[in-house]
Amino acid sequence: MSHTEVLTKYMVHFVGQLASSGVEDVVISPGSRSTPLAMTFRQRDDINHWINLDERSAAFFALGIAKEKQKPVALVCTSGTAAANYYPAIVEAYYSRVPLLVLTADRPHELRDVGAPQAIEQTEMYGKYVKWFHDLALPEESLLSYVKKQAARAVMESTSEHNGPVHLNIPLREPLTPDFSLPELWSHEQEPIPEIMAGLTTLSKDNVKVFKELLLSDRNGLIVCGPQTNPDLAEAITELASKVGIPVLADPLSQLRAGDHDKRNVVESYDALLKSDPLKRKLQPDYIIRFGAMPVSKAYLQWIQSYGNTVEHFIVEEHSSYREPSGVAAQFVWCHPLSFCKQVSAEISEGSTEDNWLDLWRKMNIEAKEHMLAAPDERLNEGHAVAYLSDAIPDDSVLFVGNSMPIRDVDSFFVSTPKKVTIMANRGANGIDGVISTALGIAATGRKTTLLLGDVSFFHDLNGLLIAKQRSLNLTIVVINNDGGGIFSYLPQAEKSEHFEELFGTPLGIDFKGVTEMYGASHKRVTDWDTYKLSLSDSYKEEGLSIIEFLTNREDHVAFHKQKWNQIAEAVLSWEE
């Protein structure tokens, strides 16, 4: 069997097994050494192929598809620094638990470590940021069964326990062009492959009893739900909370703020409430049961740290892991969150045990929302940009949020809604890179998608806009343009004005209209509320890429938020006067 015939069958068996294992999408960045992979993927009608020229953008684009579908997405690149450009997205995928199959083409072993061009050390190059690594054997006729099993295992490893990225390094010798005219190329025998057959992890009967007694006791408890992606968890948590009469602090990425589930016990404005020291003391709980990752709110983190180990903490995780950055003592409960809620809820009679503790949180939450959402003055502010966006965003859509200030403004100003809106962000590593590309990956799945981000994040991933133009993807982007990094204004270095703008404020001074036109996007620059609302409405009627540039003054942002927090604290504390 010739080299070309062996290469072709090896690639066909590999890619064919990926498809059989459920891979539906591949994102390819062009290159020479990856020719066999790229051409073989392109032969498959059952795998969506996306061509993304910039490897960094490509990886975040794949991340977006995988986030939305909750299925592994394959990435293909050539050898050398192309693979290094995947690194930021792989780190994000690892920490945010998103399944990616990273397929890096490589030089054959004899061309490694000898100064060959475009050859770098690719074995285990992503270190601990992938769940599994394998350096594939060079194509041989006797290894067709082997390569199928490695493909199946890659999918299995990426989706077992916590989802995450895996890396297959694929050395290939020239010539690199497959021959797809070979007879019966796709009719190879389906061999048994390893599969995962796993059910939901559950609580023991003794543990169910422990939590039933805790939740029905007269102790003041809280359920906290941080960032998580399970769409079924909202109803399970809120049903349990309603039965036992306990407040639920819902992070914007918890999926609890939007939808048609019961939200009577949901508290969205806890971040604003916990900015006040007197309110912190008034709201001290006896115990906390947390689902999902640590909430976005820094005020919440500092609040629980202030109590040390005097508050009992229970963290419910489907599989063993350690996500507790506060440093307080915590008891980890290895149980699927749905199982936890359903098992405990089944042991509790219908009817809420509402009390003064729940009433206090509800009243404070209502007061806080009234002040946060009070009609703004004529000057644009980033908080009401979110509030009006939540009014305009279509039902059954995705809001993807950039890091730094946008996610914090969403935390404060995106309150409960009956709309089915999935709120997502790259909160694994909390970076500002690749935000546009991730949102476009979500949009590529067909769901109506809105991206809210700052001007620095927008600038950081302009290359990502190319695929939107090439594939006519629909995306509304709201760019909060305050000419720099607004979040640094909240940090201590802002009080030392010398060199602040140069080192932290980093004003861009870029006319984004010219940039967006280059990528075939519609562009509207807004400086008043009526234009903003109309621009949002129009963007959801348009096809393609719609960019709304929302101009604000960075210097006003801190004062605006502090005024709101002070108003809330004064109003609540006045109840006792």
Automatic annotation (TrEMBL):
Q: Which cofactor does it need?
A: Mg(2+); Mn(2+); thiamine diphosphate
Q: What InterPro entries does the annotation carry?
A: DHS-like_NAD/FAD-binding_dom, MenaQ_synth_MenD, MenD_middle, THDP-binding, Thiamin_PyroP_enz_TPP-bd_dom, TPP_enzyme_TPP-bd
Provide the coiled-coil residue spans: none
**Is Metal-binding among this UniProt entry's keywords?**
yes
Record has Mitochondrion as a keyword: no
Q: Which GO terms describe its molecular function?
A: 2-succinyl-5-enolpyruvyl-6-hydroxy-3-cyclohexene-1-carboxylic-acid synthase activity
Q: In which pathway does it act?
A: Quinol/quinone metabolism; 1,4-dihydroxy-2-naphthoate biosynthesis; 1,4-dihydroxy-2-naphthoate from chorismate: step 2/7; Quinol/quinone metabolism; menaquinone biosynthesis
Q: Where is the Thiamine pyrophosphate enzyme N-terminal TPP-binding domain?
A: 14-125
Which stretches make up the Menaquinone biosynthesis protein MenD middle domain? 217-401
Q: Which reaction does it catalyse?
A: isochorismate + 2-oxoglutarate + H(+) = 5-enolpyruvoyl-6-hydroxy-2-succinyl-cyclohex-3-ene-1-carboxylate + CO2
What does the UniProt function comment say about this protein?
Answer: Catalyzes the thiamine diphosphate-dependent decarboxylation of 2-oxoglutarate and the subsequent addition of the resulting succinic semialdehyde-thiamine pyrophosphate anion to isochorismate to yield 2-succinyl-5-enolpyruvyl-6-hydroxy-3-cyclohexene-1-carboxylate (SEPHCHC).
This protein's assembly is summarised as:
Homodimer.
Name recorded for this polypeptide = 2-succinyl-5-enolpyruvyl-6-hydroxy-3-cyclohexene-1-carboxylate synthase
Species of origin: Halobacillus campisalis
Give the classification, highest ranks.
Answer: Bacteria, Bacillati, Bacillota, Bacilli, Bacillales
